[in-house]
Amino acid sequence: MNIYYAPPSQINNGFAELLDQEAKHISKVMRAREGDRLTIVDGQGGRYQGSILMITNDAVQVKIDKSENVPPSDPRLVLGMGIIKKRDRLEFAVEKAIELGVSEIGLFRSERTIKKNVRMDRLESIAVSAMKQSLQVWLPTITMYHTLDDFLASYTQAEWLVAHEKVEKQDHSFTDTDSDTVLLLVGPEGGFSPSEIDKLTDGGATTVSLGENRLRTETAVTAFLSQFLIQ
Amino acid sequence: MNIYYAPPSQINNGFAELLDQEAKHISKVMRAREGDRLTIVDGQGGRYQGSILMITNDAVQVKIDKSENVPPSDPRLVLGMGIIKKRDRLEFAVEKAIELGVSEIGLFRSERTIKKNVRMDRLESIAVSAMKQSLQVWLPTITMYHTLDDFLASYTQAEWLVAHEKVEKQDHSFTDTDSDTVLLLVGPEGGFSPSEIDKLTDGGATTVSLGENRLRTETAVTAFLSQFLIQ
Predict the structure, then answer these.
(1) CA-wise closest residue to B142 among B113, B120, B110
(2) How far is B13 from B32, CA to CA, in rounded Å?
(3) Any CB–CB contact under 8 A between A184 and chain B?
């Protein structure tokens, strides 16, 4: 795959500079040469094509000759997820959420979360890889919040949907929305507590059932986001 | 979690025998005692409750006092998946498919699959764990087929749906079906080849788009099955 990532700060005046892992990959793994063409995404909607001007182990300079700008998703889907204890499952949830088109991910400790350190650097690296792998051009942000309340405070204007087993009336049209931002809330292992559910619905959230099966958190994340794939 | 698995052959006349890993787990990890209650599922719709009569490291005898029979899913969802090269992703796809309610899984090598040995014993073990974890009582079968054709030959009466990027007309009602068995076909990394797609559609398959994003095989599996969660 000939797609590389460079943040906008490394792309100026028709030239791009690839550093660190990207540069190492190009020089040592791909064994690219001057003149080889590649594609660069900047994580902010920009996709560029160009030719390599110069390669060292630490930096690759590219002359850009084609560029396009892809608008962000509309509506934006924001995933709010209770932290998953097992790292591989958490990383999986993040990777899948990005493939499925999430714009932002918020991780929070909820009442039922076992406290744990999270390797944010690994998650950010996974986010970059997932963006490139899925041919996307917007790099989702991944933010850790101390509490569910802190997370919700950042999205007061969004439409809130929360995955919950007990749903009084299933509104099948939850994927049709007028909002430009939709929050998809998935509780931690064990689900949201009753008081958390009350707080969410008091705040205007709609509860959404993901069917009859009991789903692990990472499975609920993918199932929830998958409802928005087909419009 | 107090749920254990014993195939029907180990359940007779009001008694159940748990062996191997199940017995070890009960005796060494749970340190259960005579009289403790537990739940047993037989993978064929049977769910039993009873009390432990006798425990050794190798076998646990249970006296059953409650039993129920859960009918199989209707329609049955059968997943046909090109083999995924990386073992952790393949195992993930199997685990997620079972949580999401699949009845049977067929793995096949298609034109674009890199040939590889598959640890079927690990997949079967994952299937048992996923069944128990998701509180289900039917144990999905996992079968390896030499070719896509061999797999399809086992399901000539089913409705065939194949996930494909290029879909002329998206029929949104593909989750409404009259068939008792629906085949969900997901190609290997790289997707199905054009000739495989032709063979499938000539055989009556409907192509279904899973949206605009490029999805890894295991993500496509979860996205596809997730469309059937909410009826």
Answers:
(1) B120
(2) 23
(3) no
CB B230 within 8 Å of CB A211: yes
Q: Does residue A83 share a domain with residue A62?
A: no
What CATH number does the domain containing B50 carry? 2.40.240.20
Cβ neighbours of B192 (radius 10 Å): 23
Considering the domain architecture, whether residues B130 and B169 belong to the same structural domain is answered as: yes
State residue A41 phi and psi, 5-degree precision. -115, 145
Nearest to A214 among B135, B172, B210 (CB): B135
Written as tens digits, the pLDDT of chain B (231 aa) is 689 999 999 999 999 999 998 999 999 889 999 999 999 999 999 999 999 999 988 999 999 999 999 999 989 999 999 999 899 999 999 999 999 999 999 999 877 666 678 899 999 999 999 999 999 999 999 999 999 999 999 999 999 999 998 776 676 678 888 899 999 999 988 789 999 999 999 999 999 999 888 999 999 999 999 999 986
Q: Is B135 near chain A, with CB under 8 Å?
A: yes
Which domain covers residue B215, as residue numbers?
76-230
Separation between Cα atoms, residue A158 and residue B207, nearest integer Å:
34
Q: Are strands B59-69 and B15-19 parallel, antiparallel or unpaired?
A: antiparallel
**Which stretches within A100-193 are classed as H helix?**
120-133, 148-153
Tell me, yes or no, if B119 comes closer than 8 A to chain A by beta carbon: no
Check A226 against B226: CB less than 8 A apart: yes
Please report which residue ranges of B138-226 form alpha helices under DSSP H: 148-153, 194-202, 217-226
Question: A41 and A143: one domain?
Answer: no
In the listed set B49, B69, B89, which residue is the last one of a domain according to the structure?
A: B69
CA dihedral of residues B163, B167, B173, B174 (deg, nearest 10): -30
Q: What CATH number has the domain bearing residue A182?
A: 3.40.1280.10
Cβ atoms of A191 and B195 closer than 8 Å? no
Q: How far is A172 from chain B (nearest CA, A)?
A: 8
Answer yes or no: do B216 and A88 touch at CB < 8 A.
no
Q: Could you report the per-residue pLDDT of A113-156, keeping only the tens digit for each?
A: 666 788 999 999 999 999 999 999 999 999 999 999 999 999 99
Contacts of residue B227, defined as CB under 8 A and 6 or more positions apart, other chains included, come to A226, A227, A230, B174, B175
Test A100 with B214 for CB contact under 8 angstroms: no
